[in-house]
Design brief:
Blueprint lengths: L1 H12 L10 H7 L68 H11 L3 H24 L8 H7 L19 H6 L14 H18 L4 H10 L1 H11 L4 H4 L7 H17 L18 E6 L5 H7 L4 H7 L15 E6 L3 H8 L13 E6 L6 H7 L4 H8 L11 E6 L19 E7 L6 H7 L4 H8 L12 E10 L2 E4 L5
Antiparallel strand pairs: 1-2, 3-4, 5-6, 6-7
Helix pairs in contact: 3-11, 4-7, 5-11, 7-8, 8-9, 8-11, 12-13, 15-16
Amino acid sequence: MKHIVIAILLVLCAFPAGATEPVQPLLAELTSPTAPALPALEQVALVPRDELTAEAEPQQNTSGLFTLEELKDKTDDGTELALPDVDLPQADIPLTLNSKVEYFLNYFQTRGRQSFSRWLSRSSRYIPMMKEVFKREGMPEDLVYVAMIESGFHLHARSVANAVGPWQFISGTGRRYSLRIDQWIDERKDPLKATVAAALYLKELSGMFNGDWYLAAAGYNAGENKILRAISMYNTNDFWEISRGSYLKRETKEYVPKLLAAAIIAKDPARYGFSDVAYLSPIEFDTVKLPSRTDLELAAKLIGTTYETIKELNPDLRHWCTPPNYPDYELKIPKGTKLQFEAAYAKIPEDQRFTEKVLYTRYRARKRDSLKGIARRYNTTPDMLAELNGFSKKSRIAGKTLVVPVRQTVDFGHEGRSAANTAKGGYAKYYTVKKGDTLGSLARRFNVSSKLLSVWNNLKERVALKPGRRIIIAKFIEKNGEMVPEAQKS
């Protein structure tokens, strides 16, 4: 026994007295009978939601503890990170510092630094306007950082779940808060209108969760019903307690700490090493009400600017003109040009404010296709198709990709984003067949008869549907300036 004690003393003497001090608290915590086992980093394959997550998301352990590797707190080049002090920046939402928040503070300074720098650069363009909206609604202004982690303030961001815009609304929630979404316009991309909708939604969530902004933010990510069920399941309204369980998805568990970390850095970026960001100027514009459909090129010409400038100021517009069925649409134009625009616009006759345009798309001819059949489908002529594609009328076209004229290109959302006119003034909505689909199941799903599906797609009612084939599942016509189902044609 004496020999063993001497051996231990010799081993301990081999290390400087201070060498063990930094790890003693960690070792005590890890060896505590009540401490959770420290797991290996969770290996999860994440699908990028949009431009803001082009870089890999961090592989986070959710135990509430850091691994020894994470505790190094170094950047990729080995330099020490600026760990936050205990005092946090002033904010009108509660800021918390724990291991999960520190994880994202470190991530944004290292692997996520490039993305976060872009977010900061764009933030200055939209945050002043967004804060004004939240202030007007009596809401915490720092909730604007929800848009930062949702989209990085990227107006055209689209997630794999088809959430769109700076606040990443799915279509149902967007329409619930009066955002117009159709083939002409998608107001989820309008930074002002979408921010108003987000403020109203977050206000509703705040009331639902008794002013707890952590639960409200989690509800914004996962849906309010998901969080209500989690509260009931775990019998607590503490977000951090709820996030220890397995019911919420990893994305939602990380949402709140990611939001807090983003807010902490964005409110004092130089303190965390972001002192070289090229900030954009705040967005400024005038608005003019247009009584009728108007070309954006004409609008740009009247005030001596470019089509691209008008499109950038109006990201909600899907095409080259204002919507046909939107009375007094408010077009955004460069600040200081309102009087000039209104004076010049009043001199333009209404029938000269809009010109129908012919666009082109591509169509891959199938085995039994003919120029005549394709021409009929796209409301053109075989001669036009032959001239456009350098064919003769007798050319074999099976397997070839043809350029075909269409009046309009329409985005119908996730069921199929390609559409073309099928009759004069008409458009077809397409769907890509998946394994297990039948005419009957698709007829029930899209509220149309099997017979119509068969006629529209030249199918026999009992034929098997091949996965990957695109079929028409709805037809629309333009009626009184609106797109309506073809069945309503009078």
